[in-house]
Amino acid sequence: MPEQIHDRVEACYLQAEAFFKRPFPRPEVSFKLRGQKAGVAHLTENKLRFNLQLYRENQQDFLKQTVAHEVAHLIAHQLFGLSIQAHGEEWQLIMRGVYELPPHRCHNYAVQRRQVQRYIYRCTCPDTKGEFPFSAQRHALVAKGRRYFCRRCKVTLSFTGEQRVE
Q: Taking every annotated instance into account, which residue ranges of this chain make up the domain SprT-like (predicted)?
């Protein structure tokens, strides 16, 4: 499975080299990406990371569009430097001119959002609910002595003992 992505990365580089008539260094390719992003280009490291779960669920479009999208970021960086916008005209030129693909900024793959535990904190504001759902990380900081305040009434937020899954 990852070999198809490697093959597509190489094909994109060969296309860019033929178009620009110059060689480009090949990137390191990793499959350690999870969550909502399909791919990420690390410009200064010359590295690409791909989400294998989204690849499995969207193989055809992923190989065609997502891989070219991320390679185009690296090519644009190597041609034009760090001062360009991520999805600016240089990147769009590569997507349209080299790969003959629409320069879509984002994918539209169905992404399952993971459920997260929230810890409910409150303040003493009388006219509002004054409810603050904290992440597990922020809740752990409170346990270590960190304090958070309501911006309105300036009172320290206190844990209610309530938790919910969002």
A: 7-160
CA distance readout (Å), 131 to 63, 118, 134, 153: 44, 11, 10, 13
Q: Where are the beta strands (DSSP E) in 31-78?
A: 39-42, 47-50
C-alpha 162/C-alpha 38 separation (Å) is: 35
Expressed as residue numbers, the domain containing 24 is 2-98
Catalytic residues: 70
The distance from CA 150 to its chain's CA centroid, rounded to whole angstroms, is 31
Q: How do 47-50 and 39-42 pair as beta strands?
A: antiparallel
Q: Residue 51 corresponds to which tokens in the numbers above?
A: 């989400």
Same domain (yes/no): 92, 121:
no
Do β-strands 158-165 and 117-122 pair in parallel, antiparallel, or remain unpaired? antiparallel
- Cα gap 49→27, rounded to integer Å: 10
Q: Give the mean pLDDT per block of 10 residues along the chain (166 residues).
A: 93 98 98 93 98 95 97 98 95 97 91 82 78 92 94 89 90
What's the pTM?
Answer: 0.70
Number of domains forming the structure of the chain: 2
